[in-house]
TrEMBL record:
Recorded superkingdom: Bacteria
Domain L,D-TPase catalytic span(s) in chain numbering: 55-186
Residue numbers spanned by region Disordered: 313-334
Organism listed in the record: Lichenibacterium minor
Protein name (record): Murein L,D-transpeptidase
Length: 334
């Protein structure tokens, strides 16, 4: 970011020497076109990837972290960098309606048309909410972004230096021919501990559906094939001649026989670990936020953060009682 600031300063000095003020449009153009830093390019090289290689993004609300993954030479994705998130808003759980301040959860897509170099929030790009799943459930909202400035009303808010780097990473992949960048947004990291602690949360059926997609990525380290039918996410393809309809019953699906057993095995192990944690006395809880959260590294560092009073106490743990939340039967072959 230091190089970016020096570049902007140089533009400003040049403009003054020419007898005219630098226009805001010039600064925004520089932000959007600023090259990736040498450190980032060196990191890509160390990970056996390049700035032109495809990108994938994963976000975790409870941990307030956003990961940028890059496709390596062997076709599998490698973790390039984990960015602490400056702000997200709402509660754990999906976005349901316009104005609910919920940061979405699910599988989304960034395209060239999603990029916003003229953002009021330094730089930004949309994640494609609502997607087919959201529309099938009648969910409303728009302009859900990953952006700069530590303020959120449903978006993933990063610092300005972070969004500068993330934006450039996404821009380079799109410019090199990646048609769409997958964004995987989760309530938390899908660990056995998190699943055990949140086992009675009313969103658990939905979260287990997301976990199945997350497990596909963990097993293959390749972009997850995502579809929607019967108002469910599916991670398989319809048979030739069939097609997926987000609200209609799912047709017979063809799952990858080389991958699915590994995914099922991972799920089985995780459920066994959850059962062990429950047997050891792990209490079921629900986290209640005043309005979202931020990564602890940013606590108190941004005086202009949105709704700072909502962040002061952190989330409140409410111990839950009652029968386990219903687990939706996953459409498909099993």
């Amino acid at each position: 970011m230091v190089s970016v600031r020096r570049g902007i300063a140089a533009v400003a000095v040049s403009g003054l020497l020419a007898g005219c003020a630098v226009q805001e449009a010039d600064i925004k153009s520089y932000r959007a076109l600023a090259p990736l830093g040498a450190d980032t390019l060196a990191l890509m090289d160390a990970k056996h990837t390049t700035k032109a290689a495809p990108v994938l993004i994963r976000a975790y609300k409870k941990e307030a972290e956003l990961e940028v993954w890059k496709q390596a030479a062997d076709g599998r994705f490698v973790l390039l960098k984990t960015y602490p998130m400056c702000r997200w808003s709402g509660q754990l759980g999906p976005k349901v309606r316009e104005g609910d301040r919920q940061t979405p959860e699910g599988f989304y897509t960034v395209t060239q048309g999603s990029m916003n170099p003229n953002s009021a929030y330094y730089l930004s790009f949309g994640i494609g909410f609502p997607n087919a799943y959201d529309r099938a459930w009648g969910r409303t909202g728009n302009a859900i972004m990953v952006h700069g400035i530590c303020s959120s009303a449903g978006c993933f808010s990063m610092t300005d230096p972070q969004i500068q780097e993330i934006y450039a990473t996404v821009r380079e992949a799109l410019a090199a021919g990646q048609h769409a960048i997958q964004v995987q947004s989760f309530p938390f990291r899908m660990t056995a501990e998190n699943l055990a602690r949140h086992r009675l949360d009313p969103n658990m059926a939905f979260w287990r559906e997301l976990k199945h997609g997350a497990d596909h990525f963990e097993v293959t380290r390749r972009e997850v094939p995502v579809g929607v039918c019967g108002k469910h996410y599916v991670f398989a393809s319809p048979k030739p001649g069939d097609k997926l309809d987000a609200t209609a019953a799912c047709p017979p699906l063809e799952e990858d026989r080389s991958v699915e057993p590994q995914v099922v095995g991972r799920e089985t192990r995780d459920l066994s670990d959850v059962a062990a944690l429950v047997a050891q006395g792990t209490k079921p809880i629900q986290l209640v936020y005043q309005d979202g959260g931020q990564n602890p590294v940013f606590a108190g560092r941004f005086p202009d953060v949105s709704r700072p009073e909502a962040l002061e106490a952190g989330p409140r743990e409410v111990v839950m009682t009652g029968p386990p939340a219903a687990v939706a039967k996953r459409p498909g072959l099993r």
